Amino acid sequence: MDTGLNRCPLQEHFLPRKSSKENLDRFIPNRSAMDFDYAHYALMEGKKGKDQSAAVSSPSKEAYRKQLAETMNLNHTRILAFRNKPQAPVDLLPTHHSASLHQQPKSVKPRRYIPQTSERTLDAPDIVDDFYLNLLDWGSANVLAIALGHTVYLWDASTGSTSELVTVDEEKGPVTSINWAPDGRHVALGLNNSEVQLWDSASNRQLRTLKGGHQSRVGSLAWNNHILTTGGMDGLIINNDVRIRSPIVETYRGHTQEVCGLKWSGSGQQLASGGNDNVVHIWDRSVASSNSTTQWLHRLEEHTSAVKALAWCPFQANLLATGGGGGDRTIKFWNTHTGACLNSVDTGSQVCSLLWSKNERELLSSHGFTQNQLTLWKYPSMVKMAELTGHTSRVLYMAQSPDGCTVASAAGDETLRFWNVFGVPETVKKAAPKAVSEPFSHVNRIR
């Protein structure tokens, strides 16, 4: 999108917002709170009734009339009401009897407020609008990395500062995938020319280049401790041990077209891969290490379009969510132990990305045509909790903050939006930082 102006990457993009307190200076009567029948009676008959009752009623009859009016709800004091007011119930029994008939209501957890608009919007000029790539990731050190064309930018969520990591050569780029190592310091970049570069973000220094494994662009990456898994347009999936001179330790063959999705399970034992061949494979490390010719654990062929969106459930082992492209539009749930499909939900549009909440049993999906929305689902009922709109093009990429509360989304409309969709954890545990093994601890020995 060329507007003719020089746009700085990752600069705040301000949008006018509607105030929720508009028109609060207007006092309009609430018709639902009015009693027009009684209003007519009070105007036409009330005065005549009072004149007649003054001549004939005794004090006892007058007291009886007032009590009857209260019981029959005839003691109206206002004809026009500006707000609904709950009516006090008629107490037909003594207080000590009625209290014993009612139990105290159970405390209900208040429903979480989910903002419908993005908290912040940053410009992302020159982002590649390609469904099969993975150009956004949020590391454990709270730094977000995004590839815009040939350049990778880092946005520090703690300070809001932006820095440029690298601009790759024209003949090597553009950057086609990006993924942080578990330590939040080192980052891997997949390139259009089939190479993979490893960078130290703290020193802005390139550590090494992995080449020779793929024959075409590398569109997907996934870390598993010191193993970097790469997926290419050639259909190959390669496990690279970045600590050793010859890094390729395993090659998974099963996809016949581009591998566009890769995700390791939380245990690090299973790898899910999705491809443009509409197939999802589940690979098991224990099976892979025992066979020279690596075979998949499960081959899942129920999707009818490319599968890029993959997400392992954080609270239930062996549960995988997958999303299909424009010709499929479904989110499917799998038991990866048995290979059984547990559920399939038609979302009505292309599923580009999936993220589980770390705090609640919820799933977030991002979509393409026609609404280009983010949809929050309650699991396992798959009831829609919210739909977040604002992007004007398909929402290709999503990444989750380390605390699990905020989600960043990037789209073909060249904007990066931040959503407070998953709420705040009830108890924020301030544990001492764990010692994470450096995946490049032996990098000085690599030549």
TrEMBL record:
Domain of life: Eukaryota
CDD domains attached to this UniProt entry: WD40
Gene3D superfamilies (UniProt xref): YVTN repeat-like/Quinoprotein amine dehydrogenase
Pathway per the UniProt entry: Protein modification; protein ubiquitination
InterPro entries referenced in this protein's UniProt entry, alphabetically: Cdc20/Fizzy, WD40/YVTN_repeat-like_dom_sf, WD40_CDC20-Fz, WD40_repeat_CS, WD40_repeat_dom_sf, WD40_rpt
Known function: Component of the anaphase promoting complex/cyclosome (APC/C), a cell cycle-regulated E3 ubiquitin-protein ligase complex that controls progression through mitosis and the G1 phase of the cell cycle.
Protein name (record): Cell division cycle 20.2, cofactor of APC complex-like
